[in-house]
Amino acid sequence: MATQTLKRDVVIIGSGPAGLTAAIYSARASLKPLLIDAPPDAEKQTTPGGQLMITTEVENYPGFAKGIQGPELMEEFRKQAERFGTEFLETWIREVDLSERPFTLYGDDLVIKTETLIVASGASAQWLGIPGEAKVPHGFGGNGVSACATCDGPLPAFRNKPLIVVGGGDTAMEEATFLTRYASRVYVVHRRDKLRASKIMQDKAFRNEKIEFIWNTAVEEILGTPEEGVTAVRLRNLHTTAEHTFPISGVFVAIGHKPNTQLFRDQLDMDEKGYLITSGKSTATNIPGVFASGDVQDSVYRQAVTAAGTGCMAAIDAERFLDHLPVAMPSGEEVTIEGEHITPDHEAIITPDGHMIPNKPELVAQED
Ligand SMILES: Cc1cc2nc3c(=O)[nH]c(=O)nc-3n(C[C@H](O)[C@H](O)[C@H](O)COP(=O)(O)OP(=O)(O)OC[C@H]3O[C@@H](n4cnc5c(N)ncnc54)[C@H](O)[C@@H]3O)c2cc1C
Fold first, then answer.
1. pLDDT confidence of residue 108
2. Is 144 near ligand 1, meaning CB less than 6 Å away?
3. C-alpha angle with apex 35: 32 to 41, nearest 5 degrees?
4. What is the pLDDT of residues 259-308, one digit of tens each?
5. Which DSSP letter does residue 281 get?
6. Is 54 in the pocket of ligand 1 (CB under 6 A)?
7. Which of 36, 100, 239, 249 is the residue whose CA sits 20 to 30 A from 211?
């Protein structure tokens, strides 16, 4: 069977809050975006609609005073993107060639060429892989088990209850400290006898009277009932191998996040954890015409509203780029679709053939 080739001006990878917001903006700008998302796949941890599809109540997305279920919120995003003419395609992008424009994306039995690419492929929380951790109805995920304290900590189910945070890095310390605002007590369960977290984060956690550490210990299983949610965990001491049941009302897994950027390795600049590096003043990556938004370029905030915000920025950046206007690059330069580079001090333009010309309005001779 011949491989189908599609050609577009704007292609977006990912249908989480970032990708769908980029789609809403670029569709309203008449750019006819193509939004690609991966089919559901447990191994690759992909769900059309992104991470919010695996949560229940979202209480902090502005505009929903009474809160909204994660899947319902994403359905609203999707309908809004559809309303303005977004084209949707379900395929796993397995390879990209960003060496020249149009960029080439390789999906299942089809090739997509695009003038601009918005990467919104998100991140995946790392899980322990233990019984009881999976999403409801297979486990207690969304019913007492979470990977996001900022998102779920304030929910009534966790208030004034004893909670466990699993992990020993900065994220675990941050989540434990945050949860002490709501929980009656927070137990940090860590596999070793010392933390990986930075000194300042450790000191803050050690000083917090509501936090207690359970060292050299692994969580083996999460226990509970569908009605009550999580009621206990089975802990194993890794030195003595002794096991015991520990009553608890919630488990926050804080062993890290993995940005979905494997696909872009050796093409897009990334930090040491694999998050894409963007300009800061724009969502531009190191390749002119490729923009990144959402959790894939944000290891700090990781919220639906920040993902949506940068999705909006990416769409506006792509639109500017297609309109032949300069876009700020991570290098500090600004670049146009023709390949002109404006120096960081804005004093000069370097043309695609290497000539440098002043970036000043031409002086018009004044007539007497
Ligand atoms: C359990 C949980 C609860 C949360 N609760 C809240 C909350 O209450 N409030 C809040 O603000 N935030 C919450 N968050 C965080 C929020 O979900 C994320 O910040 C947000 O979803 C990030 O959006 P995104 O668009 O960047 O990426 P994602 O939502 O991660 O979406 C990325 C999409 O890209 C797709 N994709 C990846 N690689 C490929 C590929 N190669 N080809 C095709 N498609 C690909 C994936 O299938 C996925 O659909 C929660 C997160 C979790 C895990």
1. 87
2. no
3. 165
4. 999 999 999 999 999 999 999 899 999 999 999 999 999 998 989 999 99
5. S
6. yes
7. 239
